[in-house]
Amino acid sequence: MATLVSAASPPFVVADETATEDLGDGITRQILGYGPEIMIVRVWFEKGAVGEVHAHRHSQSSYVESGSFEVFVDGEKRVLAAGDSFYVAPHLDHGAVCLEPGVLIDTFSPAREDFLEQEG
Asked: Cα–Cα distance between 24 and 17 in angstroms, integer?
């Protein structure tokens, strides 16, 4: 299936000038940059916030910028801290529980068109 994203972010994205979206339940998202085939997103989590188990058609690689998370990917759980990362192949169940307030940097391929629809 081809990506539905035809637009792209500006070539330079300044975090302080870029909107954030409160997703509720202690989670805030900021889209940092994207084109049809890639997207990078910063996600803040308060302690106890839950990224519910879900799956999508996108490949995802996530970097733990700060904090601590119990991450679930395809039946396996691991506790990850700053500097760690995880990869999720398309269509695999995955989710996270924030153990210490922190930030994940999520990269998706192709771009998450559903995030852009929610932003607009």
From this structure: 21
Task: Report the predicted TM-score, pTM, of the whole model to 2 decimal places.
Answer: 0.91
Q: What is the pLDDT confidence band of residue 38, given thresholds at 50, 70 and 90?
A: very high
Pick the CATH number of 17-119 from 3.40.630.120, 1.50.10.20, 2.60.120.10, 3.40.47.10: 2.60.120.10
pLDDT bracket for residue 40 (50, 70, 90): very high
- Give the number of other Cβ atoms within 10 Å of residue 87's Cβ: 12
Query: CB count, 10 Å around CB of 21?
Result: 15
The confidence band for 1, taking pLDDT boundaries of 50, 70 and 90, is very low
Q: Where are the domains of the chain?
A: 17-119
DSSP string, 6-72: -----S---GGGS--EEEETTEEEEEEEEETTEEEEEEEE-TT-EEEEE--SSEEEEEEEEEEEEEE
